[in-house]
């Protein structure tokens, strides 16, 4: 049989050798299968169902991770503040906490916060007495509602305005100083040196300063209330608006205070100072090497304002 040199096939004029019956049957079956076979799938086939579900689950997981990270970052300082509050209370009631170093830090902080904020409190109290007490007494007398003077002054000035103003004065006068001092100590590594010497920074710095700010908050709050009411009475008495003695005026205001307010007002003064002192200490320690005074002080001020407002809202809701 002659074979074509190019394709290895016999020439067209040469007859092919007959195939066996088995080979012919196999070739027929193969041809039938090729005719009945389905077309080949395209390259862009749809994704399997398990793969789609896995991708959806990954998207949901990433969204939950981002949400949890945001919530944790926003509530982290508040949770730290609540836990540290319990730690300060537990350490403050233990006699062994008040060693010589802690007592010295307490008296130094008390002099700085009370003495430094006294002048500011007196000035703000005089302005409040002129602008709130005198105006309230004048317009209530003009409207024939003099009997409501005590209750309005007790609720507006002593209960609502005085704790907020005293807390803001403490925060601006003493709290920012604490933030700056502890922030510099933290960034310079001095707190780690204290820990290496066996001195706990929480007991040596946070506990005495927080207790000192608490005492200062109550002291300055009482001074603010008395001076504001007294200045308002002096102005009204000089203009002939009121004729009663000052003791009768003070007794009228004190008698208008409700029973829950006798507990709520001192708690506001105490807890406002407590929250300002503790939040300032924690803000000063919660810094990194990249922080400076321009970033520490605004962050500490915003946290202090938030703690003051939170304390007042919570007490109002409990004793309102």
Task: Describe this entry's structure for a reader.
- The longest helix is centred in the N-terminal third of the chain and has 44 residues.
- Helix content is 78%, strand content 0%.
- The N terminus is likely disordered.
- α2 crosses α8 and α4 runs antiparallel to α6.
- It is mainly alpha-helical and 320 residues long.
- The radius of gyration is 40 Å and the shape is globular.
Could you give a quick summary of the protein structure above?
The chain is built from 9 helices and no strands. By secondary structure, it is mostly helical.
Please tell me what the overall shape is.
globular
Q: Which stretches are low in confidence, meaning pLDDT under 50 for 5 or more residues running? A: 1-10, 21-26, 29-35
What's the pLDDT, averaged over the residues?
A: 81
* Distance between the amino and carboxyl termini: 116 Å
How many strand units?
0
H/E topology pattern: HHHHHHHHH
Number of helices: 9
Helix content: over 70%
Chain-wise SSE layout:
Elements: H1 21-36, H2 49-92, H3 100-142, H4 149-187, H5 190-196, H6 201-238, H7 246-255, H8 259-285, H9 293-319
Helix pairs in contact: 2-6, 2-8, 3-4, 3-6, 4-6, 4-7, 4-8, 4-9, 6-8, 8-9
Protein traits:
about 325 residues; mainly alpha; globular
